[in-house]
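Researcher: Let's do a round of design. I'm pasting the structure tokens now; please hold your answer until I've finished.
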């Protein structure tokens, strides 16, 4: 492969991963006060359960992107969201890359309406970086000063937990 073709491949891969970040908003730790919203309102009952399952979703996604093993993703995501996660993980590992680091969260709201929940989160993926899987070197050309993204996540109850079924980036936050 020529240097130009290799650069084009890396540029395409970077765009693919940035698109993933835009669609999914990419996990690590929840905000320091995990049981409270940004407004200070404590989440209770089913909203607390949604928040905990959302945190587990992010943990599973981070593990999958660092290890290349997405087998646990179906325990935390379903439908359209699971398909997107698997496709993006396949593209990442197919390019010989892994993603490591943390993602910070500031949950703005959680609403539960019957069999659907909506969680709005300000997601900061600035410390979540791609590395070459074999060498461990940082993948060159990444944007590490990405803006925080306000994203909405739809969750549905399945098998005793809330699974993320859809996500949408709303704006910067």
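Researcher: That's everything. Go ahead.
Model: Designed sequence:
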């Amino acid at each position: 492969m020529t240097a130009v073709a290799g650069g084009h491949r890396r540029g395409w891969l970077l765009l693919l991963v940035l698109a993933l970040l835009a669609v999914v908003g990419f996990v690590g730790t929840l905000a320091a006060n995990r049981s409270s919203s940004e407004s200070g309102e404590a989440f209770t009952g089913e909203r607390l359960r949604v928040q905990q399952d959302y945190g587990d979703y992010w943990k599973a996604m981070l593990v999958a992107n660092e290890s290349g093993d997405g087998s646990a993703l179906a325990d935390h995501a379903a439908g359209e969201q699971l398909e997107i996660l698997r496709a993006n993980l396949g593209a990442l590992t197919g390019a010989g890359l892994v993603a490591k680091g943390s993602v910070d969260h500031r949950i703005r709201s959680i609403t539960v309406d019957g069999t659907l929940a909506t969680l709005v989160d300000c997601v900061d993926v600035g410390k979540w970086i791609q590395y070459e899987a074999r060498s461990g070197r940082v993948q060159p050309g990444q944007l590490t000063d990405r803006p925080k993204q306000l994203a909405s996540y739809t969750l549905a109850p399945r098998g005793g937990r809330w699974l993320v079924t859809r996500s949408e980036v709303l704006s910067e936050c």
